[in-house]
Amino acid sequence: MPWFDAGVNLLDKRFDAEEVIQRAQDADVDKLCVITTHPNEWDAAVALYKKYPDQCCFTIGVHPHNAKDITESDYDRLRELAQHKGCVAIGECGLDFNRNFSPQDVQLTVFEAQLKLATSLNLPVYLHERDAFDEQIGLLTQYMPKLKGGIAHCFTGTAEQVKAYVSLGLYIGITGWVCDDKRGADLRDAVNHIPLNKLILETDAPYLFPKTLRPRKRNNEPAFLPHIAQQLGEYLQLDTDKLRISSYANSCELFSLS
């Protein structure tokens, strides 16, 4: 039975997309959601989907790190490409006050613009947040009643934060971060508060190689998703097949895929 990697940076220069997709299929990971983070990735995502329509879907959006780069014409392209077949969400969007690669006021403006666009196009949002939870939850609380839904991508926060997201109806994306003994303690507590019908599995590849997987590889890949699920299942005392079936169904529900 197949797996769905609901978050992979397949446009990263470290990847040969064809090889990554083949290794994913060999591991029974038959569906990938390709994340975009910058306007310079959008056309490539559309092209990749056209080449692999059965294996891929994609997002269209602006990561908070790149908020400073967006222009008015980019907003027009964002609206146009978000309506392209295969686009399943607006994002990766949100707030990142940890490094502030874009000024915070610019991040807030660009994030809210994408929330408004998602509302007008009836698309879910694909969310990033780091060290900006209060500001992010404030905007989401305002817009979620009008939004189709969304996912807290690569969630690494606390039990209280996950409860707040779930209360808004968001799905929660879990990655190999849960496999990190040093950094993943809060997350391993938080995952116990995610309803099974709101839990989605993703790799965020090539980032976050699961530290419990041997031998160590240079890059994380969708093919390693079953290992992440196995580790998560042990923490939750839940059968891995249940995680696979529920996560696949949740991903399809979030992205309106049959």
From TrEMBL:
Family annotation (SUPFAM superfamilies): Metallo-dependent hydrolases
Binding site for a divalent metal cation 1: 92, 204
Alphabetized UniProt keyword annotations: Hydrolase, Metal-binding
Alphabetical list of PROSITE patterns matching this protein: TATD_2, TATD_3
GO molecular-function terms, A-Z: hydrolase activity, acting on ester bonds; metal ion binding
Residue ranges crossing the lipid bilayer per the database entry: none
Keyword hit for Hydrolase: yes
Keyword Metal-binding: yes
Binding site for a divalent metal cation 2: 128, 153
Highest rank taxon of the organism: Bacteria
Any single Pfam family the record assigns to this protein: TatD_DNase
Enzyme Commission no: 3.1.21.-
PANTHER family: D-AMINOACYL-TRNA DEACYLASE
Protein family: Belongs to the metallo-dependent hydrolases superfamily. TatD-type hydrolase family.
Name of the protein in question: DNase, magnesium-dependent
Organism: Alteromonas macleodii (Pseudoalteromonas macleodii)
